[in-house]
Amino acid sequence: MSNIYEAVQLIENGQTEKGLEVLKNSVKNANDEEKYEAAILFQSLGLLDEAKNIIEDLVYLYDDDEELKIIYAELLLDLDLEDEALEILLTIKENNETKVQALLLMADLYQVQGLDEVAEQKLFEAKRILPNEPVVDFALGEYYFSKYDYKKAIPFYEKLMNQDIEVNGVSKELRLAESLSAEGEWEEAIPFYEKGIEQSKDFHTLLGYGITLFQAERYAACIPIFEEAIFFDPEYLVAHLWLSKAFDVEGQYQEGYDILQKALLVDETNVECLMSAAKLARKLKDLDSSKKHLQEALIYDPSLIEAVQLLVGILFEEEDFDEIIGSVELAIEHGASDPHFNWDLGKAYYGIEKYDLALNQYRLAYNDFNQEISFLKEFGDLLFEEGLIQEAKEVYLKLQDDEYLQEEVRERLDRINEIM
Question: I need a labelling partner for 245 at 20 to 30 A (CA). Which of 54, 164, 300, 354 fits?
Fold first, then answer.
C-alpha cells in the first residue's frame, strides 16, 4: 500500500510520469486490495485499459462480488465494449442496490443502442426494486427529458426537490425548470430557474431562463438575463434576438435596434437579425435603414416572402414602382410564391401607367382577393378607366352593400347603366 500512496503523492505534486511508473511497478507485487486501489486510481486518471485489466482479474477471482462487477461494467462501457459490459451486468441477479445500479447501466446502454422501450423497462424494473430511491427517479426523469417527453419527466424531477441529490453535476432544479418551461408552465418554472442559477450559470441556462421570463410576460425582468447570456457567449446570436424582442415589447425600440446592430457585427449575413432590425428601424421611422436591412436580407434569401412584403410596403410609401416590380419579380424568379405578388405588381404597373400589364396582374389576383373590399375597388376602378364597362359593373356589384363605399359605388353603377 505504501508504494501506491507514494504514487498518489507524486501525481498530486505534479510528477505524473514518475507517479505512474511507481504505480505500475507496485501492482506487480500488490495484494488484491492494493490492486483494487491501483485500478481505481488508474480509472480516475483516465487510464482505462490499465484499470480494466486489473479489475478483470479481480472479477475472475471474486465472482460473487457484484459491486466489483459494476465497476468492471462501467470500465467496459467507457471503453465502448458494450456487449462485454452487458454480459457482465446480466450476471448480477440479486434484487438489491447493486442490481439497481446494473439496471441503470443497462438502461443507458440500451438507450444508446436505440432500444428505448427496453431502456424504459429496465428503469421501471429498478423502480420496483427500490421504489423510493432518488437516483432511480432522477434516471427516469433524465430518460424522459432526453426523449423531449417533458410531461412525463416533470413528476420524477418534482419528487427530487426535497432530496439532496446531484448526479453527474446535473441540477435537478434546472431540469425541472426546463421541463416546466417546455410544457408552457412558465410561471411555475421561474422559481426553479432562480434556484438552479444559484448553483450553475451558463449561456444555455440564462437563455432558457430569459425566454421563460419573456413568455411569462415579465419583459423588464428578462432584459438583464439576456444581457448576461450575451456576456457569456456574444457570438451565439439567439440571445441578441430575444433581447431585441424584449426591448421591442417594452417600447425601447432604439435599444432593441442597437443590440441587433451589435449582432450584425458578429454575423452580417444573419437573415433573422436583419429582419428584426428592419422592423425596429421601421418603428423608429427610419425607412432608409429598414429598407437597407430588408434588401440585405433578400441578398442572402431572395425568396423570403416576409422581406419582400415589408420592402414592398416601404417602396409603395415612396412610390418607387419600378423597384417594387424588380423586387417582386426577383423573388418569383427564385421560387417565391405569394398571392399578394400579383396584386402588388398590378398596383405597381398602374403606378407607372402600364395599364394592360396592371389589368393582367389584377385578373391573376382576382380568385384570391375577390372578397377583399380594397382589391375590388381598385380592380373595378381600373376596369372602368380602361373602358371595360361590363367587367367593371360585375366587380362593383360586389361592393354595393359595403357601408363605406355604398354611395360612391351606386354613383358609379348609375353612370355605367347610362353608358350601357
Answer: 300
Could you give the number of structural domains in the chain? 2
The CA-based angle 206-209-214, given to 5 degrees, is 125
pLDDT for res 239: 96
Contacts 24+ apart (CB under 8 A), 10-14: 11/45
Q: How confident is the model at residue 349 (pLDDT cuts 50, 70, 90)?
A: very high
| pTM of the model as a whole | 0.79
Indicate whether 208 belongs to any domain. no
Taken as a whole, the chain contains a residue count of 420
Q: What is the pLDDT of residue 169?
A: 80
C-alpha dist (Å) from residue 220 to 173, 223, 314: 23, 6, 31
> What's the CA gap between 370 and 396, in Å, rounded?
11
What Å distances lie between residue 123 and 7, 107, 147, CA to CA?
39, 6, 14
Let me know the angle formed at the C-alpha of 165 by 162 and 167, rounded to the nearest 5 degrees: 145
Cell of 90: 446480466
Residues 277 and 242 in one domain: yes
User: In the prediction, which pLDDT does 375 show?
Assistant: 94
CA 298 to chain centre: 24
**End residue of a domain, out of 295, 318, 340:** 295
Q: Do 222 and 277 belong to one domain? A: yes
Query: Domain boundary residue among 295, 310, 325?
Result: 295
- In which residue are the cell numbers 353612370 written? 415
For residues 278 and 297, is the Cβ–Cβ distance under 8 A?
A: yes
Query: If you search the block for the grid coordinates 442559477, which residue do you land on?
Result: 197
Domain containing 153 equals 132-200
**pLDDT score at 420:** 64
Q: Is residue 263 part of a domain?
A: yes
